[in-house]
Protein: Amidohydrolase family protein
Amino acid sequence: MTATSSGSQGYILAQGTGISDGRLNIPIIDTHVHLCDPARFTYRWADEHPGHLRKCYVADVFETVKSPQLERFIFVEAAADWQHVRGELTFASEQAAIDPRLAGFVAAINMEADPDNEASIAALAAFPLVRGIRLLSRFARDPRFFLRNDISRLLGGLSDLGLTCEIGVWSTGINDVTEIVARCPRTLFIITHAGKPSIISGAFDRWADDLARLAQLPNVVCKLSGLATLGADGRALTDDVSRHFAHAYEVFGAKRTLFGSDWPTITSEVHYQRWIEVIRMSLKGASSSDELAVFRDNAVAVYRLSDQALTTEIVM
Structure:
């Protein structure tokens, strides 16, 4: 991948570009993209997945995706080491200044260990680009840390600051997400990667039941994202991933489901355009307006974006 943050290349995103199947054109807002700069930051996952460690700037998203559908995207923090989280916010702001198609940033916060979480959250909320925070059980000393009473209280107040809370857990943690979502009815929660089911193990029923219970709560939405690396082969990607996403779409509905890619991680397994097709396969019985909601309009609402498509030429 060639990573560039400056230069003379121009991009024009015209209103009306989108998925064309004879019925409709749908511009896309990708709600789950990671940018990285290994020269500036170290990352908590680098030792486990060294092949994924590469420089990814905003220009790289559009240069490699090459999808006329992609209108804007949300930069989700990339699990930088904790000493770099403020720097990653600066990095996100720099990249958005280069290309406003980076429409929002979901920030990291070490709520498990931060001595002054309230001040840290308030500082994040002061940045116009920040749309929410992300909590990951994967790197936590206590995977259930977000159920602590002090953290539950802070999460319950995020809506007052205009912030959402994204939670990443493995499928065994979905019931914990259900508990925290129920405790904080005024906060909008986003469960990423459809609760990250264990696709290869075939444990579909438990995941499906747990996700359905979570979906009964009105203040949570679900991202159809990030499962490309969990299938065993191309067939698993096409059939099994689509089956899981179809269930997520069924229980959350068209108004509470978001398209996401987990770029650039998915590129090790599938082309971006193929990923779009897999998601569309999953939207059983979706109308044109339903597809527009999943691929674009729900992101506008959840991340408080302007509803106008970008029509400006961006010079890099």
Remarks:
- The first helix runs from residue 58 to 65.
